Every structure is written in structure tokens, then in C-alpha cells.
């Protein structure tokens, strides 16, 4: 009986550890996927140049178009992936000749070339199944700057 | 003697947990490697406008080399016709916006899913962990 009780105790501890390990793996995958999605959104958004301002010699990114491209990428990403059970909200920050470059140093970049910073926040059901852990949001940021 | 018999019954079950931990760790490293390789291929595809034959072949062989599997086991379902950078997106519908986006889907058999499958009566072919990476990226290729 003693061995059986010990077996049960070990079984519970090992099972909990396995569940925690798999949930942590999912959490890491989510962070990785969200980071890559943010990079795609930033890279896609940076292509939305304002042609009228470009014609007048200024490098500028159209905020509305950049946000639309980013939204479409997010929408598509949510269709079949691990994000499908929740929602993703975005914050798009644009640095260019018209909007200025204030705060671009915070992203480790230098002023002078247009850049798009996209911050994505995923909110959904609790990622961890163990009751004492509760993480429902994941936030990742990516920035894309023109090179020329 | 009774305790010894109980121990022989439960010891294999306990060992499965340790094997499972090791296998999960290994699968995790392999998934990360696949993810990195797909990311690099996607960046190339953005420049080219699609996943052309060379990119697909290079991706399949690099994944196969890293995981020790056959390149034919790597399933790449990606746009192979060139997509061009959208010059002016204002006025385009969401569906039209997709014209400038490259879709890709890569499925790789990363490894086994469960350790000690025979203990639980699982078949080998049903015990394969297939990892799929799917996404879209905006093409940067310009029309000439």
C-alpha cells in the first residue's frame, strides 16, 4: 500500500510537471509567433508610402494604409493558428519626415529613415492549465526601418 | 515480495515520464530550428516575390539536414507565382490587399509525440508530431 501511495504521489507531481512544461512550450511558441507576426506587420506597413508627399521630396508612411495592411495580416493569422481562440490588438507607431522621429532611439534606431513600430497584444483564455498560474495576455513589439 | 511486484508494475510507468520530458525538450529545440529556417526563407521570398523553386528546395533540404529527415517529408505549400509590392493600397479592399502578400504553409514531422507508445497501445504512424507554420508576408518585389 505504501508503494502504491508513493506511486500516486509521484504520478500527480510528474503529471503536473508535464502539463506545466507543455503549457510553457505553448507560451514560448505564442511569443515567438506573435513576434514574427509583429515583424510582418511592421515590414508590410512600412511599404505604405505616401506618394503625394514622396513626390514633394519627403519620405512619409501613410498611417491608415499601414494599419490596414497590418490588420489584414493579423486577421489572416488568427484564422487557423494558436491565436484563433482570442483577440489581437495592435498599436502602430510611425516615424518619418512628416510625423517626426521623436522616440525612435527607444527602439535602438537612428533618426533620418522612416520606420514602423508595431506592438501586438494577444488576449485570450488562460494559457496555463495549472490553477496557480494565470497568463492571458502576450505582448510583443517589432520595428522595421527603411534601408537605402 | 509484494512490494517488489508492485514496483515492477509501476516503474515502467514512472520511466515514461522521464522519457517524455526528454522527448518534449528535443521536439522543442527541433521546432525552434524549423521556425528559424522558415523565417529566413520567408525573408528571401519577400525579396523574390514568391517561394520560387530554389527557395523551396533550399528550405526543404536545410530542414531535412537539421532534423535528419528526408527532404520529401517536408511539405511546403506556398505561393510560387510572383507577387508584386502594392504601390498604392488606398482604395483597395482587404481581398485585393492579398494580391501583394505571399502565403506560405510548411509542415514538418518533427519527431515522435509520445514516449513509450507501445505501453499505451499507440501505433507508430499515429505517434508523429507534425508541426505546421503558416503565415503571410508582404512582398517587396517591385514591378519593372
Notes on the structure:
The complex is a heterodimer of chains A (148) and B (144). By secondary structure, chain A is an alpha+beta fold. In chain A, 45% of the residues lie in helices and 18% in strands. Chain A has a 3-stranded antiparallel beta sheet with strand order 1-2-3, with helices on one face. Chain A is elongated. Chain A starts with a helix and ends with a strand. With 144 residues, chain B is α+β, with helices and mostly antiparallel strands. Chain B has one domain. In chain B, 46% of the residues lie in helices and 19% in strands. Chain B contains 3 helices and 3 strands, in the order ααβαββ. Chain B has a 3-stranded antiparallel beta sheet with strand order 1-2-3, covered by helices on one side. Chain B starts with a helix and ends in a 6-residue tail after the last strand. The mean pLDDT of chain B is 90. At the A-B interface, helix 1 and helix 3 of A face helix 1 and strand 3 of B.
Q: How many strands, what sense, and barrel or not for the largest sheet of chain A?
A: 3 strands, antiparallel
Which secondary-structure class do the elements of chain B indicate? alpha+beta
Q: What is the percentage of strand-forming residues of chain B?
A: 15-25%
| Shape label of chain A | elongated
Order of helices and strands of chain B: HHEHEE
By secondary-structure content and strand pairing, the structural class of chain A works out as alpha+beta
* Largest β-sheet summary of chain B: 3 strands, antiparallel
Termini distance of chain A? Answer: 74 Å
* Gyration radius over CA of chain B: 22 Å
Strands in their spatial order, largest beta sheet of chain B? 1-2-3
Separation of termini of chain B? 83 Å
The dominant shape of chain B is elongated
Largest interface: A-B, 36 and 33 residues
- Please state how the strands of the largest beta sheet of chain A are arranged side by side: 1-2-3
Number of helices of chain A: 3
Amino acid at each position: 500500500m505504501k508503494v502504491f501511495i508513493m506511486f500516486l504521489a509521484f504520478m500527480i507531481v510528474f503529471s503536473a510537471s508535464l502539463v506545466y512544461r507543455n503549457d510553457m512550450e505553448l507560451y514560448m511558441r505564442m511569443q515567438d509567433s506573435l513576434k514574427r507576426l509583429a515583424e510582418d506587420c511592421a515590414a508590410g506597413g512600412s511599404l505604405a508610402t505616401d506618394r503625394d508627399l514622396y513626390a514633394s521630396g519627403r519620405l512619409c508612411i501613410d498611417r491608415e494604409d499601414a494599419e490596414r495592411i497590418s490588420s489584414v495580416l493579423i486577421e489572416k493569422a488568427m484564422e487557423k493558428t494558436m491565436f484563433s481562440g482570442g483577440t489581437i490588438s495592435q498599436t502602430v507607431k510611425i516615424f518619418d519626415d512628416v510625423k517626426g522621429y521623436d522616440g525612435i532611439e527607444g527602439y535602438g534606431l537612428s533618426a533620418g529613415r522612416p520606420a514602423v513600430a508595431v506592438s501586438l497584444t494577444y488576449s485570450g483564455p488562460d494559457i496555463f492549465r495549472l490553477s496557480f498560474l494565470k497568463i492571458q495576455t502576450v505582448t510583443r513589439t517589432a520595428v522595421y526601418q527603411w534601408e537605402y | 515480495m509484494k512490494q517488489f511486484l508492485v514496483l515492477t508494475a509501476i516503474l515502467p510507468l514512472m520511466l515514461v515520464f522521464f522519457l517524455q520530458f526528454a522527448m518534449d525538450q528535443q521536439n522543442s529545440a527541433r521546432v525552434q530550428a524549423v521556425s528559424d529556417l522558415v523565417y529566413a526563407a520567408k525573408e528571401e521570398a519577400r525579396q523574390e516575390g514568391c517561394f520560387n523553386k530554389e527557395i523551396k528546395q533550399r528550405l526543404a533540404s536545410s530542414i531535412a539536414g537539421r532534423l535528419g529527415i528526408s527532404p520529401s517529408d517536408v511539405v511546403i505549400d506556398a505561393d510560387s507565382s510572383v507577387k508584386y509590392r502594392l504601390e498604392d493600397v488606398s482604395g483597395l479592399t482587404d481581398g485585393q490587399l492579398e494580391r501583394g502578400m505571399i502565403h506560405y504553409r510548411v509542415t514538418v514531422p518533427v519527431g515522435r509525440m509520445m514516449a513509450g507508445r507501445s505501453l499505451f497501445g499507440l501505433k507508430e504512424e499515429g505517434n508523429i508530431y507534425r508541426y505546421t507554420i503558416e503565415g503571410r508576408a508582404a512582398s517587396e518585389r517591385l514591378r519593372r
